Amino acid sequence: MKKSALQIARAAYQPKLPKALKGSLKIQEGAPTQSVADQDAIAKLFPNTYGMPVLSFIESNEVKNYPAINAGVILSGGQAPGGHNVIAGLFDGLKALNKDSRLYGFLLGPGGLVDHKYIELTQDIIDEYRNTGGFDIIGSGRTKLETEDQFDKGLQIIKELNIKALVIIGGDDSNTNACVLAEYYKKNNTGVQVIGCPKTIDGDLKNEMIETSFGFDTACKVYSEVIGNIQRDCNSAKKYWHFIKLMGRSASHIALECALQTQPNICIISEEVEAKNMSLDDVVTYIAKIVADRAAQGNNFGTVLIPEGLIEFIPAMKRLIAELNDFLAHNSNEFAMIKKSEQRNYIINHLSSENSAIYASLPEGVARQLSLDRDPHGNVQVSLIETEKLLSEMVSKKLAEWKAEGKYNGKFAAQHHFFGYEGRCAAPSNFDADYCYSLGYTAAMLIGEGKTGYMSSVRNTTKPADQWIAGGVPVTMMMNMERRHGEMKPVIQKALVKLDGAPFKHFVAQREQWAKETCYVYPGPIQYFGPTEVCDQPTETLKLEQA
């Protein structure tokens, strides 16, 4: 297969590691932990893995001999840059423990474990995928490991291959499932360890011990490059408003980070909209006012960044969607039998009066998108809702009203973009290449030390890599109870943008100037080769959070 010059050059890149992982190490234990909320309920559900301490690896002079270990690895959920380096780090770490250790990759996600589809990952295969984007080494999938029947089927192949540990690389739901699996295998004395790795470009899997999820850095750099290109075009033609929707269903971390990197005229932060109890009309008016103010200066152009999950953060819309999710979860069969032309009225007639009125007021297209097939968690697929078009149409309508009243005399023409898949399989930045390799290597060390129910953790990430702190955090520590498919279930709590946090405060301090003036920044493509201050920088979010 032909390779690009970049692929050839990146294959030679050697990811950096925390100092403690470069030789003999020992574990330093913190205090016992508890879940972020619903402590009694979580402790009751996870009696064998609840309350474990946070772990840190520190350098040691003691030389240990580890037995050969067979491990399995699963890529779960959507792709994120750096997944291949997690697997490479895991492989190298297992071989460092004992050269006879072996690694098996389960194919196409958790379904590969249940269906016994796997390959052995050898040195030749691993070397082919170092520092590359994508999950194509073994593929990914969205099968959810939830039932004891699945756990037992997985255990059959685990025993057959003499696997002692399973590493699940995924987001909050995948790691929740990993924790459930760890609890089940420990309760039944199977001797199988389960370790998670924090993956999601959305950035919403983080806490004091997981500073960032892998893939976020690269995805934001890819999106920011393209936003910069659009802003250069915008400032050249001076005739379009570009409405740009970005990944981020449950949190606005990507939108905020891209705004910090590119300085658009407008960036909507879903968490702020919810905190201020803003209506859809409030959001539209906010955008329209900035468009009108720029038009008054002769600037009929600009950029607007929108998180894909915005609709769910508008409180009235959130109440509607919550009721809609519950209603469709319990009436899915009946709803499927109704003609498409009659589905809208069926929903209107079965919702509460407040939500029925809101649903009836929505444009036909948006109403239809809200009632489409649910995602695997039973929720509205917000990425299918064309929020960028909805907002630009409503802004256009409001500006037309203002023009009729003599309050506005500009021109308004919109272009629409949605950046999602473009960032998910990019070749990882230096940061993600190093971070992911360290996460995988750390997972191997957790396996070597006999741990289960932990997520691999690498901290102190704004410092040079040899100063990073590697260790493990109990997955139960991140959990709370949430409603899923109409039932309360344990899940890892999503990390939202903190409105009192340094990144958001920095954004707020700048946004008025960005709205009035054309302050665009053009970050350019990810830089791999050159000065450290250009190539090895973490995200603006991390720098501000860790300052």
From TrEMBL:
| Keyword annotations of the record | Cytoplasm, Glycolysis, Kinase, Magnesium, Metal-binding, Transferase
Pathway the protein contributes to: Carbohydrate degradation; glycolysis; D-glyceraldehyde 3-phosphate and glycerone phosphate from D-glucose: step 3/4
Q: Which organism is it from?
A: Coprobacter fastidiosus NSB1 = JCM 33896
- Where do the annotations place substrate binding? T200, I201, D202, K239, Y240, M247, G248, R249, E308, Y421, E422, G423, R424
Q: What is this protein called?
A: Pyrophosphate--fructose 6-phosphate 1-phosphotransferase
Q: Name one GO molecular function term.
A: diphosphate-fructose-6-phosphate 1-phosphotransferase activity
Record-level GO cellular component terms: cytosol
Record text on subunit structure and interactions: Homodimer.
**Biological processes per GO annotation:** fructose 6-phosphate metabolic process; response to glucose
Q: What is the regulation of this protein's activity? A: Non-allosteric.
Site entry: Important for catalytic activity and substrate specificity: D173
Location of the Phosphofructokinase domain = 71-350
A Pfam family it matches: PFK
InterPro entries attached to this UniProt entry: ATP_PFK, PfpB_PPi_PFK, Phosphofructokinase_dom, PKF_sf
Catalytic machinery residues: D202
Annotated diphosphate binding sites: G78
Q: Which gene encodes it?
A: pfp
Which superkingdom?
Bacteria
Q: Please describe what this protein does.
A: Catalyzes the phosphorylation of D-fructose 6-phosphate, the first committing step of glycolysis. Uses inorganic phosphate (PPi) as phosphoryl donor instead of ATP like common ATP-dependent phosphofructokinases (ATP-PFKs), which renders the reaction reversible, and can thus function both in glycolysis and gluconeogenesis. Consistently, PPi-PFK can replace the enzymes of both the forward (ATP-PFK) and reverse (fructose-bisphosphatase (FBPase)) reactions.
Residues the record lists as binding Mg(2+): D172
| Residue numbers marked as site, Important for catalytic activity | K199
The EC code for this enzyme is: 2.7.1.90
Broad enzyme group: transferase
